Fold:
Amino acid sequence: MSDRFDINYIYDILGLKPGASVDEVKQAYRQMAKIWHPDCFLEPHQKLEAEDKIKEINQAYAKLKSYQPNEINQSASTSTKIDLTPSNAESFYKLAMEKAQKGKYSEAIEDFIQAIRLNPNYFEAYRYRGLACSKLGYENRAWSDLKNARELELKQKKAPPKPTSTPPTSTSPPPPPKPTSPPPPPSESQSQTSPWKCVHILRHLNWVFTTAMSPDGQTLASGSSDNTIKIWHLDTGKLLHTLTSHTKWVRCLAFSSDSETLVSGSADHTVKLWNVNTGQNLYTLNNHSDWVNSVTFSPDGKTLVSGSRDMTIKIWRCNV
Structure:
């Protein structure tokens, strides 16, 4: 990673400014590794979060060690020159969105950082920086950015509207209105009413990554970054079960053809099978080494396929 945006983001992980000395890097690494050591936490979810964080810290430290100081300083200097080009937070935000659309997530994150520094209340920048972080596997940073975006957006919605200035009064009568032509008749697309109507709004505590509808049309399943799966009655919207065995984001779901079994894939590297009627976890498959992003059943329900960020597709067959 020779790109200056990656270097700056790595410095940011360790709480440092670009161009920090070798001694400063070592000291920052020791302090953060001590704070985030998993043995310092008692709760299971805290330990998992600490494990993710210490992994991120170790990777950042290793990257910085692999660069020569003159390369780092040159990179930081280049960053300073380029960062001065956009004039405001909106300019940085637009640059970041363009880079994110091209898959340049590390570069996009750096520009989102600049936008937020110029406008700390820029909740859209927080939201999309979180999405970019999730693409790179920085789950804790993504979670934090989503929380900040949600809080800032709610705060801005609750803020009272700014009073508008009263136009100056005039003693002379207002000019007569200008004649206007009648509005054109509505086009065919405008005159049509959409046949789609929202009948239920169902909620998770955080992002909803995936949904699946059972083949019999009775049940809906949803997976979220709150690490849960929720099973709902489709017609009434009633929550039937909340499944909590996954320890990280639930990224994909699929029903068997008989609608009795649900399969899920998660960022915790596991594939889980569930009894839809009882919510019981039937089996856990552990052969992936990274996020599971897709799952599907064969029509007879005897074969299961899972795809992962570890660049493998695994085919599973049931012998029962």
Notes: The chain is about 40% helix and 20% strand.
